[in-house]
Write a structure and sequence with these properties.
Blueprint: E1 3-7, H1 30-33, E2 35-42, E3 47-51, E4 60-71, E5 75-80, E6 89-96, E7 99-104, E8 106-108, H2 110-123, E9 135-142, E10 145-152, E11 158-160, E12 163-165, E13 170-174
Parallel strand pairs: 1-7
Antiparallel strand pairs: 2-4, 3-4, 3-5, 4-8, 5-6, 6-7, 9-10, 10-13, 11-12
Length: about 180
């Protein structure tokens, strides 16, 4: 049981970095993904997506690239909304074996990614610590004591549980 997340261009190249010519993309992971890439397109601007199911009211945009997916077994979480490509999926979820496989067919914006990430973390019972944007926190237990490693990945002053973090500063906090 587990979760795999594939992103656009998955399966395009083999382990020797050669393009898989003549093979339907996403190549060897197609059965896991439960969808195939019918067309591809690089993007110069953001394109709006239409959400389905639990994502029906979550606005989404895709940028940089788009894989135009045909869902074979996968559930379509988002599809393209422009008139030429509205029959194609942009983001899918497939249940494969005992696991879940997501395919994100382009540069998806933050809001739907955060919802997916939270769902994945919770459904897999992964411990996490809520923190401000660009502040990474992970806990470690050593000899029955808990420590938090807190890292500010921004060039701005950040605060975490009363501790100020200068730009790019890291701290170890004993709990």
């Amino acid at each position: 049981m587990g979760t795999v997340i594939f992103s656009f261009r998955a399966g395009v190249k083999d382990s020797d970095n050669n393009v898989r010519l003549g093979e339907i993309l996403p190549g060897p992971v197609r059965s896991m993904i439960g969808a195939r890439v019918d067309e591809i397109e690089s993007l110069t601007k953001e394109h709006k997506l239409k959400g389905n199911g639990e994502f029906a009211n979550v606005s989404a945009e895709i940028s940089v690239w788009r894989d135009l997916l045909i869902a074979e077994e996968a559930e379509v979480l988002y599809q393209y909304s422009d008139q030429f490509y509205d029959q194609y999926a942009a983001v899918t979820r497939n249940y494969f074996g005992k696991g879940t496989v997501f395919y994100i067919g382009g540069g998806l914006n933050k809001e739907p990614l955060e919802i997916m990430a939270k769902s994945i973390v919770e459904s897999n019972n992964i411990q996490y610590v809520q923190s401000p944007d660009q502040v990474e926190v992970y806990q470690r237990e050593i000899d029955d004591e808990t420590y938090e490693f807190v890292m500010n990945h921004s060039d701005e002053l950040k605060s975490y549980q009363g501790e100020e973090l200068k730009a790019f500063e890291s701290k170890i906090i004993k709990k």
